[in-house]
Amino acid sequence: MRFVRLDTPKPISKIGLGTWQFGSREWGYGADYERRAAEIVRRALDLGVTLFDTAELYGFGRSERILGAALEDDRAKVVVASKIFPLLPVAPVVQQRAVASAARLGVDRIDLYQVHQANPVVADTTTMRGMRTLQDVGLVAEVGVSNYDLRRWRFAEAALGRRVLSNQVRYSMIDRGPEEDLIPYAEQAGRIVIAYSPLAQGFLSGRYDASNPPSGAVRRANPYFLPENLARGTELIATLREVADAHDATPSQIALAYVLRHPNVVAIPGASGVEQMERNAAAADIDLADDEYAALVAAAHAFRPVTGLAAMPRLIRARLGK
Ligand SMILES: NC(=O)c1ccc[n+]([C@@H]2O[C@H](COP(=O)([O-])OP(=O)(O)OC[C@H]3O[C@@H](n4cnc5c(N)ncnc54)[C@H](OP(=O)(O)O)[C@@H]3O)[C@@H](O)[C@H]2O)c1
User: Fold this and answer.
1) Could you give the CA distance from residue 105 to residue 322 in angstroms, rounded to a whole number?
2) 104 alpha carbon, distance to own chain's centre
3) What is the average pLDDT across 124-131?
4) pLDDT confidence of 267, banded at 50, 70, 90?
5) Which residues are catalytic?
6) pLDDT of residue 31 exceeding 70
């Protein structure tokens, strides 16, 4: 396992484990998944993963409970990251919600407490006042944000009066927005970009095509899995496979290596089974050659999916089975 080179209370592994899937029916993993989830966590620990990401929103607290229980006594050794869903995130609410998350996780201190998304009405000044108190009393070690643009990330830092260590954002080969400003800022200021959906929810695994789409409500609502976009992704997946073959690896591992190439980026893929966790952890050790990276960039640029408003009628038709 590799780790971010930054001064943090505990080392942060380049590959972490995302746990939205835990306790969330919308991924469609069935009743047996709760047992597998615990196995995934235990295997991640064996493999040197130290970053475990959850949120109060995931399964309405179930993800935090499943993760906390599975970590057992190892909770204190790793970085347990959770998120407040910012419905009225004024200082007293932030404090109460952190206490509730810590209780569900079974920890005395949340290693990284993140604001799940920017609230359009409540300013970060009051949210960060709550965060500062949580740090002062020792309930929170580091503060993070999620889905923040650069301007608001920096504003949150000014409001906290301390570093906001990380910004968790969608980042993968086919969602490259963070390369414009968030990643350069993280590198220059000693911060971290936490890449969520680094496999584009499994699109980049190459497992799916128009005749074999994934199940579950989350991916039925994701335009990348429209039959048309799965077809448009053929060349991109072929390039991933070509690079993967040269490393005796899989397309997913190469997609992870692509985002991890930046020193201040860590990725938190979710996993539907232990074997995926093993492969994802191993991806931290893959070094892409410059020409391989360039081929991936070119293939990603050439991929033109139907997204945004244009995808809406197609998503509805797909939902209705038409
Ligand atoms: N802050 C936010 O707003 C936000 C938003 C979204 C997610 N997140 C966090 O980020 C985490 C990851 O994002 P995500 O779950 O949306 O997307 P992801 O990590 O890109 O995709 C996860 C899915 O990809 C498939 N997969 C994983 N490893 C694989 C491998 N080695 N080979 C083949 N397939 C593999 C699995 O699905 P199948 O096996 O079923 O194909 C898995 O459930 C979440 O768990 C959550 O913690 C945060």
Assistant:
1) 43
2) 20
3) 97
4) very high
5) 58
6) yes
Q: Please tell me the pTM assigned to this model.
A: 0.96
Given a cut of 80, whether residue 148 has pLDDT beyond it is yes
Relative to the CA of 20, which ligand 1 atom is closest? Answer: 45
Instruction: Pick the atom of ligand 1 nearest to 198's CA.
Output: 20
Residue 322 binned pLDDT confidence (cut-offs 50, 70, 90): low
| pLDDT > 90? residue 321 | no
pLDDT at 215: 87
Atom of ligand 1 nearest to the CA of 273: 39
* Distance, CA of 304 to CA of 296 (rounded, Å): 14
Between helix 124-136 and helix 91-105 the angle, nearest 10°, is 50
Task: Tell me the average pLDDT of the chain.
Answer: 95
125 CA distance to ligand 1 centroid (A)? 32
- Two tokens at 237? 């997946």
Top mutation candidate among 272, 280, 286 for ligand 1, by most atoms within 8 Å of CB: 272
